[in-house]
Design a protein that fits this description.
This protein is an alpha/beta fold and about 1150 residues long. It has 49 helices and 20 strands.
Length: about 1150
């Protein structure tokens, strides 16, 4: 910026005594004619001054910066309207003082090259006075005026040192408001001088792209009472058309959103980029200036003429790092910009920031948190080029869906579909877990997700069931029949093109929502006009509406023939008819369809069981002729005496149940026949049983760890069933086997059998009969509770999904204690599972085993195994999906039914039919009422059928008053079977959906009655529902009001293995239970002290009055706390209870759950 600069110039005024209006008195230049210069001056006139007004905010001179285009060339100019040097001589014909205007302009390119700021422009021309300009034509002959500007930094770099920088907040808001229209700046005393005002205008211009310099007209004063064309100018507050900004206290915008005008969006963008270490203060630039530029994921400033490189500014929070970077980006944007297209200005800066962050992310200088912060802080479109959201998707968490929704673009659809599937189906969540993160998402996003989920595979394979379930959930909640017609029509047409997918959506919809809205969804699908789909829709239209028609056999044939979903769809049709009270409209066609199905192949046991449940919903009275005809078609047997029943008391017309299998009393001496084989290569045994055991032993024993001499009792042991009625125990070089049926009848536990066989092998005797004693089943149940019921249940449930490895067990954990853990796990599964399962207490190769203690966390064969870390006990990790998750939840529910672990263990020990966990039909048996663990131990209530009816009505959307709903839930919880408890859970979910559950649970918690057993089951069931649904204020008030109920809630949480949720310091349940006074009831204060790592006195007498379950909860909380906290408290509690609660303490010592704390307890384990 050296040398001289040529200016077009003009002097506007009047000759003394002139009567005509203002005109050009003289002008010069090579590019613009005087008439053009006059039009520019008049176009950007700031109004007419009232006088010199020295010392006032509107004092002359008024300095106006113009932006005009002539031909194809943009010009930047300055007009200086000033009081004449001799006012007495400068008057017109009317005697008014003539106020001249000096005007200078130059092409925009020259302005940028030689000047670069309003300040430099004004300083360069202000030396050319009016008198000089009057003489100039005589000297130059009307040529351009050549002036030598003073050396000064460019506008953007100068802003970093400008005295106006302390008004950065006001400049940000002013620049942002300029996108939406004219802005008037209040003439505050701090900006009283012309130089200060011009510096502020330069700062505003620097916060706009350089391409806007050809469109930005600004001034040090404008008369807002007159019409003007200045975009930004200082002026009086007279209620003019422009937005008024006080630079010392700029206005604040509300939270930005995509529907805002451009001003709040651009202000948010600038504020975040300048001060990105925290979210923008709603466009007002919160924190701008002092802390601007902390690490926000922006690139270091490149060389924009802003001085030396400041790449360290961001990493160390230098004060102007963020501002320097933003000014550099804006300086580089020289593409011509117009205020008539403000979106382009916003988008240009947004694109630059997004692309820069993407570059930094690729180079490893920014991470997912930078992406989240950037997308969360800014309104849409913060990612106009679509580069940031795809980078975030591989790292996305559920809450990131909010960001995806905010910055949605159609091109994101495939990746977002994969994300939703990963977060739900693969992440073990249901759609409702994500719904809160998708509030406000555009319908186009939901429609695109559904379309992608329902897209057939590469080989035209149907979409997986979990994808269809997700699609149905989204249609149910956000679109379909209630959505925008144009948006959802392509999705509907694609869905209706496949009868199977249509039925999948309907089945899922009915399973989750029931009847409400179903007919509307069916009519929406029917509007697609697909003939092949109309046939499968007709049963739903007939049964879900008010039609008096009946369903025909061809309709059911079409439904049942749907590939992969026909059976489930038929069951849904049957249940829909039952819920809608239209059984008569369906039964004739259903009877014909079932006849054809039975004629094709008899119903299997599993299929018959499923259809029995569905027919019970269609015809609840099994004695009805229609129900009996349908039952015969699916192969239901006639009423007969049987072991397993829904209730223990017979109803009219049913045979009395048989007594369960007898079990020998604990301590009874028992002899079990024993056979022995050597696993090592040798001649095969002569007997068939021996040969089979020998082959299996050779498979299982090679990896068994040997910790002592051959045959020693410290060796690892293997236990397996051969699937043919034999149960074997093996060491590394021996194997003993016995009959499974006799073993189960004897009551001998796995631990006793394993230790006796190992002792015989060690002695070398290998007897043909093992001398044993029947185990005390109550002690086994106590072992389960000592290990942690939830943790043991999680392992048992995990076995249904695949093999499980227990890793990290300490060397001090003996073989007997490992056997006790394995026995506890198997005790929570039907006893018949022993027929084919293989387990081991110690192995280096866990691959062949369903359950194994091992040090090998990784399996070389790539086999997928669930890893359970011994050190994590007693915390429970719920299996993420599949049969395991369902069984885990049902075990917790069954524990609620039985009210103690021993009753549950006994019920499971009575099911001795052989089971194979790799057979789906057997797994289904484990999850139904066939499993004796899921049969009520109490007689049925007379009101049970009424409660079931109330549940069905609620599922159909017909709610009753709160007391009636509470009474129905109470009956289902207190007097029904496991099926009724599952119905209660579904019932509660429906009530929660309609925000009716909180008050009902509070009623159940407060309820009492004369039947203590039923009251206890009601309370326990209410706590189970609380765990599944979460609690509201009504439940909270009830628990705070009833300390005994609150203690039961903590017991329930610890029993289920939910310890992390207790910690008061982290806002857990204990804090939630704290009343407004801040003082917990004494027993809860004990739990709080145990859950907090800080030392505190513990008075167990406060818990003793609540029974051993409360003391057990205290022990487990202390045990869990020592995982990360200081040791000693668990041992202290064990010592304190050793003499008053010996059975409780002995269960921890006997099982090994006490760990290293066992040494601190005096006396041997019992």
């Amino acid at each position: 910026m050296t040398g001289t600069v040529g200016f077009e110039w003009a002097l506007l005024g009047k000759e003394p005594g002139q009567r005509e209006d203002y005109q050009i008195l003289c002008a010069g230049g090579a590019r613009l004619r005087p008439a053009t210069l006059e039009r520019i001056i008049q176009h950007f006139s700031p109004g007419s001054p009232a006088g010199e007004r020295a010392g006032e905010p509107d004092a002359l001179p008024w300095i106006t910066f113009t932006a005009a285009t002539s031909g194809e060339t943009p010009y930047v100019g300055v007009a200086i309207r000033e009081w004449p040097a001799d006012p007495a001589m400068a008057v017109d014909a009317t005697g008014r003082v003539v106020i001249p205007t000096r005007f200078f302009c130059l092409p925009l390119d020259d302005f940028r090259r030689h000047l670069g700021s309003f300040t430099a422009l004004y300083e360069a021309v202000r030396v050319a006075t009016v008198s000089q300009l009057r003489r100039l034509p005589e000297v130059t002959g009307g040529q351009a005026l050549s002036l030598r500007p003073a050396a000064s930094p460019p506008r953007r770099a100068g802003a970093l040192a400008s005295p106006a920088l302390r008004f950065l907040r006001g400049a940000v808001v002013t620049a942002a408001l300029a996108l939406d229209g004219p802005v008037v700046v209040r003439p505050v005393p701090e900006l009283a001088t012309h130089s200060a005002r011009i510096a502020f205008l330069d700062l505003v211009a620097a916060l706009l792209p350089a391409g806007a310099e050809g469109a930005l007209a600004a001034g040090t004063w404008v008369d807002v009472a007159t019409s003007h064309r200045l975009r930004v100018a200082f002026g009086q507050d007279l209620g003019g058309t422009g937005r008024l900004v006080d630079p010392t206290a700029p206005p604040r915008f509300g939270p930005p959103n995509p529907n805002d005008e451009w001003a709040p969006r651009y202000a948010s963008l600038l504020a975040y980029l300048i001060d990105g270490n925290r979210p923008a203060d709603h466009g007002a630039g919160h924190g701008l200036g002092h802390d601007a530029g902390r690490d926000n994921g922006l690139a270091p400033a490149r060389d924009h003429g802003l001085g030396h490189d400041h790449s360290h500014d961001h990493s160390h929070g230098d004060g102007d790092g963020g501002l320097r970077t933003v000014l550099g980006w804006l300086a580089e944007d020289t593409t011509p910009r117009s205020f008539s297209r403000p979106g382009e200005i916003f988008q240009a800066l947004t694109e630059t920031a997004a692309l820069d962050l993407a570059t930094r992310f690729a180079a490893g200088r920014a991470g997912p948190e930078h992406l989240r912060r950037h997308l969360a802080a800014l309104p849409a479109p913060a990612d106009p080029t679509g580069v940031l959201v795809p980078l975030l998707l591989p790292f996305a968490r559920p809450e990131d869906l909010t960001l995806v929704a905010r910055h949605w673009a159609p091109a994101l659809a495939p990746a977002v579909v994969d994300l939703v599937v990963r977060l739900c189906a693969a992440g073990g969540r249901e759609y409702r877990d994500l719904a809160s993160h998708l509030q406000g998402a555009p319908e186009a996003m939901f429609a695109a997700i559904v379309g992608g989920l329902l897209e057939p595979g590469t080989d035209d394979d149907p979409p997986p069931a979990d994808a269809v379930e997700l699609a149905a959930d989204i249609i149910r909640e956000h679109g379909g029949a209630t959505g925008d017609r144009a948006t959802w029509a392509p999705v509907r047409n694609g869905l209706a093109a496949s009868p199977a997918r249509t039925l999948q959506v309907l089945v899922r919809y009915f399973a989750s929502r029931g009847v409400p809205g179903l007919l509307q969804l069916v009519e929406w699908l029917a509007a697609a006009g697909q003939p092949q789909t109309d046939a499968v829709l007709r049963p739903f239209r007939v049964l879900g509406g008010n039609s008096q028609e009946s369903v025909g056999h061809p309709d059911l044939t079409a439904v049942g023939a749907a590939d992969g979903i026909g059976e489930a769809a038929m069951l849904t049709v049957v249940r829909l008819a039952g819920w809608s009270g239209r059984a008569e409209a369906l039964t004739p066609a259903l009877e014909e369809w079932l006849w054809a199905e039975a004629d094709r192949a008899p119903f299997s046991v599993a299929r018959r069981r499923t259809w029995t449940a569905a027919l019970d919903e269609l015809w609840p009275d099994r004695r009805a002729d229609e129900r009996q005809r349908l039952g015969r078609l699916i192969g239901e047997p006639k009423a007969r005496r049987r072991l397993l029943r829904r209730n223990t008391e017979p109803t009219d017309g049913e045979a009395a149940p048989d007594d369960p299998s007898s079990r020998l009393a604990a301590g009874t001496r028992v002899q079990l026949g024993a056979g022995w084989v050597d696993p090592a290569p040798s001649p095969q045994p002569a007997s068939a049983d021996g040969r089979g055991i020998w082959e299996l032993a050779r498979l299982y024993t090679p990896g068994v760890r040997r910790d002592g001499p051959p045959g020693g009792t410290s060796d690892g042991l293997v236990l397996f069933g051969d699937g043919g009625g034999r149960l074997a125990v093996c060491g590394a070089d021996w194997c003993c086997h016995t009959g499974l049926a006799r073993f189960l009848d004897s009551g001998v536990g796995i631990t006793g059998l394993g230790l006796a066989a190992a002792a015989s092998a060690s002695s070398g005797s290998r007897p043909s009969r093992l001398q044993l004693v029947a185990a005390d089943q109550r002690l086994g149940a106590q072992d389960v509770d000592a290990f942690g019921f939830g943790a043991v249940a999680a392992v048992a449930a995990g076995l249904l999904d695949g093999p499980v490895s227990v890793v990290g067990a300490p060397p001090a954990l003996t073989t007997e204690q490992r056997l006790r853990f394995i026995e506890g796990v198997l005790a929570l599964l039907p006893a018949g599972l022993l027929a084919g399962v293989a387990v081991t207490t110690a192995t280096d190769n866990p691959t062949p085993f369903r359950l194994a203690f091992t040090a090998q966390a990784q399996i070389s064969s790539g086999q997928s195994r669930l890893l359970v870390r011994w050190g994590d006990l007693p915390e429970a990790a719920e299996p993420p999906s599949g049969y395991g998750r369902e069984y885990f939840r049902r075990l917790l529910a069954a524990r609620t039914l039985f009210q103690d672990t021993a009753g549950l263990v006994h019920a499971l020990s009575t099911w001795r039919d052989p089971l194979d966990v790799d057979q789906a039909e057997d797994l289904l048996d484990v999850l139904t009422d066939t499993n004796p663990a899921f049969v009520s131990p109490l007689p049925a209530s007379k009101s049970l059928e009424k409660a079931r009816s109330r549940r069905r009505a609620a599922m159909a959307g017909r709610f009753a008053r709160e007391p009636e709903e509470a009474d129905a839930l109470r009956i289902l919880l207190s007097g029904g079977t496991m099926a009724d408890l599952q119905d209660a859970i579904v019932f509660a979910n429906r009530l929660e959906t309609f925000q009716r559950l909180d008050g009902i649970l509070a009623r159940l918690i407060r309820g009492d009655g004369r039947d203590n057993d039923r009251v206890a089951r009601t309370h326990a069931g209410a706590l189970l529902l609380l765990q599944l649904s979460g609690g509201g204020e009504a439940v909270r008030a009830a628990l705070q009001e009833l300390p005994e109920a609150a203690v039961s809630w903590i017991i329930h949480l610890t029993r289920s293995g939910s310890f992390a949720a207790l910690n008061a310091a982290q806002g857990g349940w204990l804090r939630w239970l704290t009343p407004p006074s801040g003082q917990l009831p004494p027993p809860l204060a004990v739990f709080q002290a145990l859950a907090t790592p800080r030392p505190a006195p513990i008075d167990l007498r406060l818990l003793a009055v609540h029974g051993d379950d409360a003391l057990l909860a205290a022990l487990q909380i202390a045990r869990y706390g020592e995982r990360h906290g200081p040791p000693g408290r668990f041992a202290q509690l064990l010592r304190a209870l050793h003499h008053t609660r010996p059975a409780l303490v002995d269960s921890f010592l006997r099982s090994g759950a006490a760990g290293s704390s066992a040494a601190a307890v005096a006396g041997p384990p019992r």
